[in-house]
Design brief:
Strand order of the largest sheet: 14-15-16-13-9-12-11-10-17
Binding site for Mg(2+): 432, 510, 588
Number of domains: 3
Shape: elongated
EC number: 4.2.1.118
Family: Belongs to the bacterial two-domain DSD family.
Radius of gyration: 28 Å
CATH topology of the largest domain: TIM Barrel
GO molecular function: 3-dehydroshikimate dehydratase activity; isomerase activity; metal ion binding
Domain VOC: 286-414, 429-578
Largest sheet: 9 strands, mixed
CATH class of the largest domain: Alpha Beta
Bound molecules: 3,4-dihydroxybenzoic acid, magnesium ion
Mean pLDDT: 95
Oligomer: single chain
Helix content: 25-40%
Number of helices: 22
Low-confidence stretches: none
């Protein structure tokens, strides 16, 4: 059982790719032909570098357009093959990936294909090498691993086996149980890639959009489960052609690659009831609290804002400048400490949401899993809560469900009258969190949530900001008691990117609270003086017609700047927003009944409203 990565998956020179793979802890590397051909390192020097770093070179790839060619291309292909065998001998690599022929000149005649592959297998075996025949999803004739397997069986030579690649099989929607027909001893190698589910030309999809298992929508877990079922115990190798990976940090992609493979092995083993060394994915029961690092100069304004929302201070930390505020089930920790984590966070980001507290079913196991999958754990300002590093250096505290009250009582001096009043506060609880990340880290943070926690993703949405397109991905637990939207953009001037630059890095941009009667909540917080985001009349004129609103409801939405959405089953979502605190984070208030989304059709209206408050830099 070894973890491998193809050099094509990482940015940089061949040497940088090899170093990044070794540093991340891979056992093996596949050398991509073009990476080697373009490298100034000889095969011997490359081999020395690989072995010095504790890696092995497990595959050379790809070799193209061999079988079924007419002359003179056929002879040329066999000459090329011999030259690659020479390179492999010097590299110390004994497996060559031979992909199925994509040339328009290729013959589909099965007997010709089998004869050519037998000749190539004989040559390979003569040099102690083996060929792995990989069906490319866009090949001229052989684009299905089932057909590649038939051909490998027909060739029946120790110098040829099958090479499986999850992308080619899953992009062709070939049932994963077809892998059960394959003899694991004849599997030369396994390459894995996930991808977003897109309807496009397969070659383009494959060369630009592949991503790590756990970052896309293909059933890579089912694919590996079937391989384990038939007893395959060889290398699993990441072969990720991705435009972003080519330009982002090789160290980040390599580290995520190890996390992705380890989580995938764990999931596949669990599916078969096999032993696995990782604790299971942490089950999130709900969002227990969020913590703000508040600068001294922002303290009065911050306390005023949370009080306007109906929060009451229910406790003060026994030893620290930390307060606990609550409304309904939503707890806010306001951290004013001038040392420790929250201070460091606000020095970098300004007053900001610096941590979230998740109630999980087994916090100790959650921490062990995070550590085993490369997560960093941290000491927090609240001593009895262990924490995992999250976006922008924020913390994700994990605590056992039902344990929060004990921790609050131990560490805080609580005010029982205030706590009793908070129970009936106008905000009833948390609905969701919205986080903004750098576009280059969007997939990385998605993998973080999906590998460490038992969560699902919704289909990604494109959201229109007046200054650019924003990608938004919802991540939530099965019961909907934990919900997060992750947002990123390449547009330099969209609100999302302005948030990133103004707050120096990724972070939580807004919190949504829920209430059972949104107009009542809106009236309360307005009466308390909370400034809300104005929504234009054009929006409400459209909404009245779109949703067939009666006069009373229409008047309430207009008066209270409420936005509305409805799912196909008629479940409604209503939402309104606060103005931003010091041009940074803001609050959303929602009411949902059976509706599972986040009001995506309204997001352009909200972003346009927010952008009217932007202050343009001086010319
Ligand atoms: O896109 C390609 O050509 C290509 C090459 C080698 C592979 O292993 C593969 O899966 C795709
Ligand atoms: Mg491949």
């Amino acid at each position: 059982m070894t973890n491998a990565i193809a050099s094509v998956s990482l940015s940089g020179t061949l040497e940088e790719k090899i170093r990044a793979a070794a540093a991340a802890g891979f056992d093996e590397i596949e050398i991509f032909d073009v990476d080697f051909v373009a490298s100034p390192l000889s095969a011997r020097e490359t081999r020395a570098l690989i072995t010095d770093l504790g890696l092995t070179c497990s595959l050379y790839q790809p070799f193209r357009d061999l079988e079924g060619m007419p002359e003179p291309q056929r002879s040329r292909a066999f000459a090329r093959l011999q030259q690659k065998f020479d390179v492999m001998a010097e590299l110390g690599c004994d497996r060559l990936l031979l992909c199925t022929n994509c040339s328009p000149l290729a013959s589909g005649d099965r007997a010709r294909i089998v004869a050519d592959l037998r000749e190539a297998a004989e040559l390979a075996a003569g040099r102690g090498l083996v060929l792995g025949y990989e069906a490319l999803a866009w090949a001229t004739h052989v684009w299905d691993h089932r057909e590649a397997w038939e051909i490998v069986c027909a060739v029946d030579h120790p110098g040829l086996g099958i090479l499986l690649d999850s992308f080619h099989s899953l992009s062709r929607a070939i049932p994963v149980d077809s892998l059960r027909a394959i003899d694991p001893a004849k599997i030369v190698y396994v390459q894995l890639a996930d991808a977003p589910v897109l309807d496009m030309n397969r070659l383009y999809w494959s060369r630009h959009f592949r991503n790590l298992p756990g970052q896309g929508g293909l059933d890579v877990e089912g694919f590996v489960t079937e391989l384990f079922r038939i007893g395959y115990a060889g290398p699993l190798s990441l072969e990720i052609f991705n435009d972003r990976f080519r330009s982002t940090s090789a160290a980040l992609v390599a580290r995520d690659g190890v996390r992705s493979l380890d989580a995938l092995r764990d999931a596949a083993a669990r599916n078969l009831g096999q032993a696995t060394s990782l604790p299971r994915k942490a089950e999130i029961v709900g969002l227990e609290f969020v913590e703000f690092a508040v600068a001294a100069e922002d303290r009065i304004a911050m306390e005023a804002m949370v009080a306007q929302m109906g929060f009451v201070r229910i406790g003060r930390h026994r030893a620290k400048q930390v307060e606990l505020w609550r409304s309904g089930m939503a707890s806010l920790v306001l951290n004013h400490e001038d040392q420790g984590f929250a201070r460091a966070y606000r020095l970098t980001h300004g007053s900001a949401l610096c941590a979230i507290g998740l109630a999980v079913t087994d916090s100790a196991a959650a921490i062990r899993r995070a550590e085993a999958l490369g997560g960093k754990t941290e000491a927090s300002d609240i001593p009895s809560m262990p924490a995992i590093r999250g976006v922008g250096g924020s913390l994700v505290y994990v605590l056992d469900a039902g344990d929060a009250d004990r921790i609050w009582a131990e560490e805080f001096v609580l005010d029982p009258a205030a706590a009793a009043a908070a129970v009936t506060g106008p905000i009833e609880g948390f609905d969701h969190l919205a986080v903004v990340v750098h576009n280059d880290e969007f997939l990385s943070w998605q993998l973080y949530w999906r590998a460490l926690f038992d969560v699902q993703v919704q289909e990604a949405q494109d959201v229109i900001d007046p200054n650019g397109l924003v990608y938004s991905q919802a991540i939530q637990n099965r019961s909907g008691t934990f919900r997060l939207t992750m947002n990123a953009t390449d547009a330099r001037d969209a609100l999302t990117s302005r948030f990133l630059s103004q707050t120096f890095g990724a972070g939580f941009q807004h919190i949504a609270f829920h209430a059972g009667d949104l107009p009542a909540l809106a009236r309360t917080v307005r009466a308390n003086g909370l400034e809300c985001l104005p929504i234009p009349a054009n929006y409400h004129d459209d909404a009245v017609a779109r949703f067939g609103l009666d006069a009373a409801e229409s008047a309430a939405l207009r008066e209270l700047d409420i936005l509305i959405d409805e799912d196909p089953a008629g479940h409604r979502y209503r939402q309104f927003y606060s103005r931003a605190f010091h041009r940074s984070f803001f609050f959303e208030f929602v009411e949902r009944s059976g509706y599972d989304g986040y009001g995506a059709p309204n997001a352009p209206v909200r972003l346009a409203a927010q952008s009217r408050y932007r202050i343009d830099p001086l010319p």
